[in-house]
Design brief:
The complex is a heterotrimer of chains A (521), B (148) and C (358). Chain A is of the alpha+beta class and 521 residues long. Helices cover 39% and strands 16% of the residues of chain A. In chain A, the strands form 6 sheets. A 4-stranded mixed β-sheet of chain A has the order 1-4-3-2. In chain A, strands 9-10-11 form a 3-stranded antiparallel β-sheet, covered by helices on one side. In chain A, helix 5 packs antiparallel against helix 6. Chain B has 3 helices and 5 strands, in the order H-E-H-E-E-H-E-E. Chain B has a domain of 92 residues: Alpha-Beta Plaits, CATH 3.30.70.3270. Helices cover 22% and strands 20% of the residues of chain B. In chain B, strands 2-3-5 form a 3-stranded antiparallel β-sheet. Chain B starts with 6 loop residues before the first helix and ends with a strand. Chain C is mostly helical and 358 residues long. Chain C has one domain. Chain C has 15 helices and no strands. In chain C, helix 4 packs antiparallel against helix 5 and helix 10 packs antiparallel against helix 15. Classes of the chains: A alpha+beta (521), B alpha+beta (148), C mainly alpha (358). Chains in contact: A-B, A-C, B-C. Chains A and C meet through strand 9, helix 6, helix 7, helix 9 and helix 15 of A and helix 7, helix 11 and helix 15 of C.
Chain lengths: 521, 148, 358
């Protein structure tokens, strides 16, 4: 699908109109440097009830001071997306309340994803001193005609006289290097400032210099708990662009492995959520059972976490002879163990007290923040890509989309537990019927994509994982964008956390289930 | 058990849910333990054949490797892990000079085990083996010469 | 039955015969302190090892297995490591209080520990308000925790300390109520008498329902007093990294650690003294042969056996439940435990007045 270009002046009226017509889900907001034609942004919109997709693009020819009006008052998630684009391309979003860099340091020189970026090390040496925490936000005046942009006033994000506490970047409950600055009133949270980028590796920038098979190796390292699905998405996108038909057997293997990965991820989710709430025993039970999936992964793919299995046109190696038997045994085993988790943790009165009614995310907010995956479904949004835009074999198998209503921590937790059972159900339908055939289609040694824009998305373990490729016919993409599953989840914390307690922050963070390398890329 | 919203109902529900939890852990107290005692179980532990631990060159029956020094693996490596030095050797019989492998160095410390080098090799001259115990004190020891 | 009184009296007489009365007293004090501290450390090591193994068993693991046979030397290795670690000092902390806090915590727990009746005559202090003294001594441990949190110049520590203050002071009430139940049942506060009375039947049996309820509440409140899961909010490692002792290292941290374990022992020890008969053996009326066999088991074994059983119960609880939230902790105490405890106290009084006890 190619985006429709519109003028910057038309942007806000059009977007407002589309939003009121039901295009309420901003799937992704992609910044691109089109070289001579200027810098621009692609808006990928979706109607959350009908699944209708639209793409619009805005271009700004002024490379010195590119300005585009913000849409973050229309879709709340755009606030962080636009900060990312500002960080990488230097596009200023007029009307944005808090336009700071999102991933890179405040003292970074230049905007790295621009094609005219100066990579010399003299400009950005390896800095050994800590970054000074910037506590100022510079909102741009809302200006409908987009030419009035000027810094309105500077305000502090968190005032100095508040009791500020840092959760992260090194903290047991952030599951990685994410940092929250909290302003507290006693145990209650008054304000939160999210700081990402501690594990930003510039994967999108690196991809512009790597060949397509080489990029595949990086996808496993985005969300390491959706390694298989991430790779599936990129392979699908490349195969779609090349017009490559993959075999039925590959589809079966990919679907089964995707679901195994989902169980793996959800098991890790429930163990870690339990540990964050202090139930260390449940954590060990979850890991004990996850080990069995990892053993299966190791046998088939050779890797436990970084599996490296999907390749363009198929999979790396055929499944092993004992695979089906082992998976079936595992499925039976896991079904029984779910009851144990429920007995020891889920139904426990302490857990219920800590989760029920805590961290509510309403349906409207879930869509506006683009919280897909288990989080969105806990709020009642039927956002499963497997149902919305079926890929692989998902239109052939029978499975239920788990949807809860309350959108609190407990529902988010239950969604995942039910999804484990649903995934087992999918695997059991497929495992006995894997057709004979090639596990891989032969491809040319050097893979070039035709010119154009391609996108694909899959249901990752924690939301919609999307790939967008703009190709100019080379061995490597002109621009590659991954839609992070975790960034919208983290964005929604602004909303959820107001008035919660520190202990709730832990419960909310645990049940939102973000993975930091996926947010930071 | 259904939760009742009375004072006593809440207490009863809480106690019963806590008791269920206690029963579950007590069961596990007596089950077989799952710990694998790693260095002690070296002999019995099973590692999948496909596990990628370190690159090596399989030798044929004459003790020669199959590498033709084409450099495809080095070109395909995203991290520049592989460097190949070649030499020109003149065949004594035909008198033709031929490019031969001189030194094949592999930096284990930079490798991310993406398997592209193995996939691309036209002669199957390199493969991954299961030697996973690669911890060393000096980074330089991770730079390995593969051909003997 | 064998009593340690003979030995202690013998030592006392011997010292008095070779030394003037003042000197004998001083030597005795030093000896007693030495014994108490030695017992304290030994039991702490046993308990740390036990915690690791019990926790591992609940989690389908083996626990430490490497250092020594079956991991038996693991704790010694840990202690050694802790001893050689540097005790760091923190910028802009309150030096005096920062260094004082761990000692306060340990002092309170050693003081309480020395009141426990290990066996007949094996008790440092035995006077008519012994139970009262134990409560008073154990409750100033919270002061050490508060000071540790306040003086560390760390926000996590501060939150942990404030939580612990709210929690420990609340739960002291429940502990008091439970102990009162026993005091009403027995009519005495002297520990040796309390145990003696239980030779004919443990209080948990003699006081039946109210005593049993008091026992359960005591265990819950005792668990909260020792800051162990599900009441480990002052430490709450996934929220506050390590809570009040975040900034402590080396042996200063070791003191908190040991004190936490020994407080658990003390809670269990008091529970076994008040409810399970302390060093008194188990008698079943009518079975004289059985009772005679029970007499052969020395009192100290009875006491330690019961105490470690209670410890195991508390460990079981700890390794099963998730952590509570501070408002739930406080509401559990004020809305549930205290009302129930008060009603229970009333029932017990009624029982005693009407003679409905055994």
């Amino acid at each position: 699908m190619t985006p429709t270009f519109i003028e910057t002046k038309e942007l806000r009226p059009l977007m407002k109109e589309l939003h009121s017509k039901g295009m309420d889900f901003l799937r992704d907001l992609i910044g691109i440097d089109w070289g001579e034609e200027g810098l621009g942004v692609i808006y990928m919109l979706e109607n959350s009830s009908t699944g209708e997709n639209l793409q619009y693009a805005v271009r700004c020819a002024d490379r010195e001071k590119p300005q585009i009006p913000t849409v973050c008052d229309i879709w709340k998630v755009a606030e962080l997306y636009e900060r990312e684009v500002y960080d990488f391309f230097g596009i200023e979003f007029t009307g944005h309340p808090d336009l700071r860099r999102l991933y890179l340091r405040n003292d970074w020189v230049g905007h790295p994803l621009r094609k005219d970026y100066d990579e010399s090390e003299a400009l950005n040496p390896i800095r050994l001193e800590s970054e000074i925490t910037e506590d100022v936000q510079r909102p741009y005046e809302i200006a409908e005609d987009a030419e009035m942009a000027k810094i309105d006033k500077e305000t502090n994000i968190i005032h100095g006289d508040q009791y500020i506490i840092n959760i992260g970047p090194q903290h047991p409950a952030t599951h990685g290097v994410l940092r929250f600055r909290l302003a507290l009133d006693g145990e209650e949270i008054r304000k939160i400032d999210i700081r990402c980028g501690y594990i930003h590796r510039g994967i999108e920038k690196m991809s512009e210099k790597l060949t397509y098979p080489q990029i595949l190796a990086l996808t496993d390292r985005l969300d390491y708990l959706s390694a298989h699905q991430n790779r599936h998405a990129l392979c699908m996108c490349i195969e779609k662009a090349m017009g490559l038909e993959i075999t039925e057997r590959t589809q079966y293997i990919r679907t089964i492995m995707d679901e195994l990965q989902r169980i793996d991820s959800h098991l890790l989710f429930l163990s870690c959520a339990a540990m964050d709430l202090g139930a260390i025993t449940t954590f060990i039970y979850g890991f004990r059972d996850r080990e069995k999936i990892l053993d299966i992964f190791e046998e088939v793919t050779g890797g436990r976490l970084i599996q490296n299995y999907n390749t363009i046109g198929g999979v790396q190696a055929d499944i092993t002879p004992g695979f089906a038997q082992k998976v079936k045994e595992y499925c039976r085993y896991q079904r029984d163990k779910i009851k144990e988790y429920n007995d020891v943790f889920t139904n426990n009165v302490i857990t219920r007290k800590r989760m029920i009614g805590v961290g509510r995310l309403s349906l409207a907010d879930a869509i506006s923040y683009g919280c897909t995956g288990g989080t969105g479904r806990a709020s009642g949004w039927a956002c499963d890509v497997r149902k919305r835009h079926p890929y692989a074999l998902y239109d052939k198998v029978d499975f239920k989309e788990i949807i809860y209503k309350n959108g609190d921590c407990y529902d988010r937790f239950l969604v995942r537990i039910d999804e484990i059972l649903e995934s087992i159900h999918i695997i059991e339908q497929l495992i006995d019927n894997i057709p004979e055939g090639d596990y891989k289609v032969k491809t040319k040694p050097i893979i070039r994509l035709p010119e154009g824009q391609f996108s694909a998305s899959v249901e990752g373990s924690r939301g919609e994982f999307g790939v967008f490729i703009e190709s100019r016919g080379d061995k490597s993409p002109y621009r590659l964008k991954f839609r992070p599953m975790g960034l919208p989840l983290v964005a929604s914390m602004h909303k959820i956390l107001k008035g919660a307690k520190i202990a709730d922050l832990i419960a909310i963070g645990a049940t939102l289930d973000y993975v930091i390398p996926d947010i930071d890329r | 058990m259904k939760q009742r919203n009375t004072y006593i109902g809440k207490i009863l529900f809480s106690v019963s849910s806590l008791a269920t939890g206690l029963k579950t852990t007590l069961n596990e107290f007596f089950t077989r333990k799952v710990t694998e005692q790693y260095p002690e179980n070296r002999k019995t532990q099973k590692i999948s054949e496909r596990h990628r631990a370190r690159l090596y060159m399989p030798l044929d029956e004459n003790g020669n490797n199959k590498c033709i020094a084409c450099g495809l693996c080095a070109n395909n490596c995203p991290n520049g892990t592989i460097t190949i030095k070649t030499k020109m050797v003149t065949d004594p019989e035909t008198g033709k000079s031929k490019k031969m492998l001189d030194e094949y160095t592999y930096d284990l410390g930079c490798c991310m085990f993406c398997q592209l080098c193995v996939n691309v090799c036209p002669k199957d001259a390199i493969a991954f083996n299961n030697d996973f115990e690669n911890a060393v004190f000096d980074r330089k020891k991770l730079i390995i010469k593969l051909n003997k | 039955m064998f009593s340690f009184n003979n030995i202690t009296t013998a030592i006392d007489e011997f010292l008095n015969s070779v030394l003037p009365a003042q000197g004998a007293l001083i030597v005795e004090c030093v000896l007693v302190a030495l014994c108490a501290v030695l017992a304290y450390v030994t039991l702490a090591i046993v308990m740390i090892f036990m915690e690791r193994k019990v926790c591992a068993a609940f989690q389908c693991r083996l626990g430490p297995m490497r250092v020594g046979y079956w991991g038996l030397l693991q704790v010694f290795a840990d202690v050694f490591k802790m001893l050689i670690k540097e005790i760091i000092s923190i910028n802009r902390s309150d030096r005096v209080l920062y260094n004082l806090a761990p000692y306060l915590v340990v002092m309170s727990s050693v003081l309480t520990f020395s009141c426990l009746p290990f066996a007949s005559g094996l008790q440092v202090l035995d006077f008519n308000i012994g139970v009262f003294f134990i409560m008073a001594a154990s409750s100033f441990g919270v002061l050490g925790i508060l000071l540790a949190g306040w003086s560390s110049n760390n926000k996590y520590s501060m939150i942990g300390a404030v939580r612990s203050g709210a929690q420990m002071i609340s739960y002291e009430l429940s502990i008091g109520l439970c102990i009162l139940v026993v005091v009403i049942l027995s009519g005495t506060m002297q520990i040796s008498e309390l145990v003696d009375m239980q030779r004919s039947g443990w209080f948990i049996f003699r006081g039946h329902i109210p005593a049993f309820i008091a026992f359960i509440i005591y265990l819950i409140a005792g668990n909260a007093e020792t800051n162990r899961a599900p009441f480990d909010l002052p430490e709450a490692e996934s929220e506050l990294t390590a809570g009040f002792h975040t900034e402590y290292s080396g042996m200063h941290f070791g003191f908190f650690y040991v004190a936490e374990f020994m407080n658990l022992f003390i809670v269990a020890g008091i529970a076994s003294t008040l409810f399970l008969g302390g060093w008194a053996p188990l008698y079943i009326t009518g079975l004289d042969a059985f009772n005679n066999i029970m007499d052969y088991i020395p009192g100290i074994v009875w006491f330690l056996g019961k105490t470690f059983f209670v410890i195991w119960l508390l460990m079981w609880v700890r390794w099963t439940f998730p952590r509570m939230r501070i408002d739930h902790v406080v509401s559990l105490e004020w809305k549930y435990l205290i009302p129930i405890g008060l009603v229970n106290l009333l029932i017990m009084t009624l029982c005693v007045v009407m003679g409905w006890t055994f």
